Task: inverse folding
């Protein structure tokens, strides 16, 4: 059977975005096509911190956590060709699935597993903040790391307007430095003036000392 490269499976409290504060099982897949300077999971793409796991075994491990919410993250999950198969199996087991992606890649077979219990969080990255056009209709949440490079044109543009209407945009300060917090507040105000809503949410799991 096909095996996936899995860095880790763990249970924690979601610290970011729509599920913040909820208990969640995480599946971290290996590999990433970007190298963001603030990345706190560089071990997910070092090419050696993973084990190969069959999908059924992986799902069984997640079931042992006793939770029905699972987040597939990375690295970049869309680098894993078997991602649709993993999602399909989790949905069949009645999990609600959240996939975290940088938005630059696309797998056509994802269309076959689109479901109300499948959520896709897209966190576009500098310098281009590119989002693959095929992915846009299926994004349920946009998350922007607020750093020196982010500006309002990266958040509100022709690519993002359809997603912004869902009223779930997260601004995540890169740090708690006063200038980053102020920038997040300024961007939130600009988003509001443009007719959209956003939420400023720091990485709460780090505040709690959780993985």
Result:
């Amino acid at each position: 059977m096909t095996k996936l490269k899995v860095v880790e499976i763990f249970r924690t409290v979601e610290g970011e975005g729509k599920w913040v504060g909820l208990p969640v099982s995480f599946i971290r897949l290996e590999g990433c096509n970007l190298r963001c300077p603030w990345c706190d999971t560089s071990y997910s793409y070092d090419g050696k911190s993973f084990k190969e796991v069959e999908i059924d075994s992986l799902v069984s491990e997640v079931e042992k956590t006793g939770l029905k919410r699972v987040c597939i993250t990375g690295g970049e999950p869309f680098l894993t060709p078997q991602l649709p198969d993993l999602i399909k199996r989790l949905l069949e087991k009645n999990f609600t699935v959240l996939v975290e992606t940088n938005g630059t890649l696309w797998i056509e077979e994802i269309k076959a597993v689109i479901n109300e219990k499948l959520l896709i969080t897209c966190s576009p990255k500098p310098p281009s903040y590119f989002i693959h056009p095929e992915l846009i209709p299926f994004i349920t949440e946009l998350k922007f790391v607020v750093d020196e490079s982010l500006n309002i044109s990266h958040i509100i543009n022709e690519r993002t307007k359809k997603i912004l209407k869902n009223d779930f945009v997260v601004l995540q300060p890169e740090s708690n430095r006063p200038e980053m917090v102020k920038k997040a507040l300024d961007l939130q105000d600009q988003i509001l003036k443009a007719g959209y809503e956003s939420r400023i949410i720091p990485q709460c799991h780090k505040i709690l000392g959780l993985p």
Helices lie at 55-63, 83-92, 152-155, 161-164, 178-193, 204-207. The first strand starts at residue 3 and ends at 13. Residues 3-207 form a domain with the TIM Barrel fold (CATH 3.20.20.70).
